Amino acid sequence: MRKKLALKQVGTISMAVIETKNLTYTYPGRTEPSIKDVSIKIEKGEFTLITGPSGCGKTTLCRCFNGLIPHFYQGELKGEITAAGLKVVEHQISELARHVGLVFQNPENQLFALSVEKDVAFGLENLGVPREKMRKRVEWALKLTGIDDLRERAPHELSGGQQQRVAIASVLAMQPKVMVLDEPTSFLDPLGAKKIFEVIYELNRKLGVTIALVEHRLDLTARYADHIIVMDNGKVVLDGEPRETLSSEEARLIGVGIPKATRLYQILQKDGRIRLGNTIPLCSDEMASMLREALKSQ
Amino acid sequence: MIEVEDVYFTYPNGVEALRGVSLTIKNGDFVAIMGENGAGKTTLVKHFNGLLKSASGSVLIDGVDTRKVSVATLARKVGFVFQNPDNQLFSETVEQEIAFALKNFGFKERVTKRRVTWALNLLGLAQYRKTSPFMLSGGERKRVALASVLAWNPKILILDEPTIGQDYHQKEKLRQFILQMKTQRKTTIIVTHDVEFVAECNPRVLLMREGRIVADGEAQNVLTNPEILIKASIVPPQIAQIFIQLSDLGLPKDVIDVYEAREKLLKVSERSK
């Protein structure tokens, strides 16, 4: 896998927005590194899904993208990280934050203001965005995440799902070039989660925001991805195009939650009695239309 | 057994979280409570261990009114694992975290040790015995919180969003464990948004909306009914979505399991040949 990546790097002009080279990081007080020799590239405008078993190093990797590692978390870092053209080790978190927005797994770690509106405006205030422009951006972010009726409420009084929307809105408002989202909808109901993923996808397609999304629930997210990175035990074990990657035997063995539509396709292909097309489906719509064709043509 | 009779609950800020809930959960039941954010799911289960007491109506646990006993007394019988593990963890090491409640309940040292080891192994946490819970990943912290409750072997287990941050293997282990609970006639109640997990377990599903129960039945029936689901902000599981879309081809709508899906599809395919 690494050989293939190395070949890709030679000869092509890199458009990577995020790139790590042989990145190894150990938290203070730990003996074993949480990520080991990770070399990845996330291209400009790409929607990348990062997945893998619990404790595999996904969150740690995300913390490297916006400089939380090594500036906030100490510990031992080897290798290189570049984000939005900046060497992460050499730039402050505040500077990196203009380009790389991170939505945390636990929204309570992110929210602190007295009202939702103030929380969403906070990052913009810090950047010195003019008042009128700030107001517009805050409005836009509140609407898009469906929380404009919560603007006066105190974030700590909200439900987990509502807090997650606020956390997303506050990063959205900054309109960063790269959004890194660590299981951003885990507390949301399925319809709420689906809507948020659609918003993220729209940002990606319409505004060209590069997305790095950490998720276990591939049923909800695989369809949006251009690129999937699978980690296991601190290492990158699969890195490639979603349909191929998710249907590989390795993905199943590692315990990646393969979408059920994809799983049904695999099971039917193995059986062989129903003849299906060759494009591996990632969601129910794709699988349903494939089945419809197969059953009609018989 | 849990008996809930016409329970109403309003938070001090005026939010009416429960508006007349009645239900019975028998020993050995496996129940998934689902519904949109703010529907009252967590509020309801907090009544089962006495964390909240109903304003009107009653909640009986094995015949005892929760308003007449302390949370500490109920806790021995009703174990509760919160949605956010950080609300629950405080010890210096994973081992101490799991031992804490056991010591409080007066288990002997020897029993405590054995149970801690059992829980660590069950949840794949043995290598973190001496680690601080706060050094662990979100998914791992969630499992520590679960281990600390499973360790004292409660008769009724309430899990608020147990699958968050868990990978496929961990979810499968959780499913196996819940099935084991069932064979021991113990009750498991999960609050969850994870439709795919529920589809794999096929428990009894209670669907809530605006403080009321709007559907109560087997997962296979509830999760394949789009009209009801949309009201509760639930998206059907992928297999159900496929079968709902293809129902005009003579396929049944109520399929949520991937192997059952294969059988039904092969049958229709044979017929049309």
| Whole-number mean pLDDT of chain B | 92
- CATH structural class of the largest domain in chain B: Alpha Beta
Number of beta-strand segments of chain B:
10
Low-confidence segments of chain B, given as residue ranges, are: none
Query: In which range does the helix fraction of chain A lie?
Result: 40-55%
| Major beta-sheet overview of chain B | 6 strands, mixed
Shape of chain A: globular
Strands of the widest sheet of chain B, in order across it, are 6-7-8-3-9-10
The SSE string of chain B, one letter per element, is EEEHEEHEHHHEHEHEEHHHH
User: What is the tally of helical segments of chain B?
Assistant: 11
The helix-strand sequence of chain A is HEEEHHEEHEHHHEHEHEEHHHH
CATH superfamily of the largest domain in chain B: P-loop containing nucleotide triphosphate hydrolases
Main structural class of chain B: alpha/beta
CATH architecture verdict of the largest domain in chain B: 3-Layer(aba) Sandwich
User: What would you call the quaternary organization?
Assistant: heterodimer
Strand order of the largest sheet of chain A: 6-7-8-3-9-10
Distance between the termini of chain A: 41 Å
Q: Could you please say which CATH topology of the largest domain in chain B applies here?
A: Rossmann fold
Can you describe what's shown?
The complex is a heterodimer of chains A (298) and B (273). Chain A is of the alpha/beta class. Chain A has a domain of 40 residues. Chain A is 42% helix and 20% strand. In chain A, the strands form two sheets. A six-stranded mixed sheet of chain A has the order 6-7-8-3-9-10, sandwiched between helices. Chain A has a four-stranded antiparallel sheet with strand order 2-1-4-5, with helices on one face. In chain A, α5 crosses α6 and α5 runs parallel beside α7. The N terminus of chain A is likely disordered. By secondary structure, chain B is an alpha/beta fold. Chain B folds into two domains: 234 residues, 3-Layer(aba) Sandwich (Rossmann fold), CATH 3.40.50.300; 37 residues, no CATH class. Helices cover 40% and strands 22% of the residues of chain B. Chain B contains eleven helices and ten strands. Chain B has a six-stranded mixed sheet, with helices on both faces. In chain B, α6 links the parallel β7 and β8. Chain B is globular. The model of chain B has no long low-confidence stretch (mean pLDDT 92). At the A-B interface, α7, α8, α12 and α13 of A face α5, α6, α7, α10 and α11 of B.
